Amino acid sequence: MRPALRDNKDFWAGLMLAGTGALSMFLARNYPLGTALRMGPGYFPRVLGGILALFGLYVLVRGFYRNEKVQGSWSPRALVLLPLSLVLFGVLMKHAGFIPALVTLIFGSAAAGREFKWREVLWCTVFLTVLSVAVFIWGLGLPYPLIADF
């Protein structure tokens, strides 16, 4: 017996992916596309958005043929903490710098889960912060201050 679409796991996942990809392509529609060798600012979001939308359509159609039902329940803590962490990351990037913003994002995201352990999150934060600074600041040369006013 097939579950109704409102309980179909692949249907909702595909719809979310296709919607996110389509939204990305829509928001980048006015940016110059460029070419594969000389990419414009619109190239990356439009190409990746298109790939994401196609993948989402594949998962959505697969949902019509599979019988996987959504399991579990919603976590109100995750619904609040994850978007809040992202918003704080954006605010802190501008006013506090890259490292405080990243630490806040990692701790906030980890606190949204049910298995939060201080020691593991602390080590994960140190590792991800060092890796992110090495890749994005030193490797790619992105112009973000590590800590504001330093």
Largest sheet: none
Low-confidence stretches: none
Oligomer: single chain
Strand content: under 5%
Distance between the termini: 62 Å
Number of strands: 0
Pick out its properties.
mainly alpha; single chain; 0% strand; flat; 150 residues
Describe the structure.
The structure is a single chain. This protein is mainly alpha-helical and 150 residues long. Helices cover 65% and strands 0% of the residues. The chain has 5 helices and no strands. The protein is flat and about 55 Å long.
Concise description?
By secondary structure, the chain is mainly alpha-helical. The chain has five helices and no strands.
SSE order and pairing:
Elements lengths: L8 H19 L15 H23 L10 H20 L2 H14 L6 H22 L11
Helix pairs in contact: 1-2, 3-4, 4-5
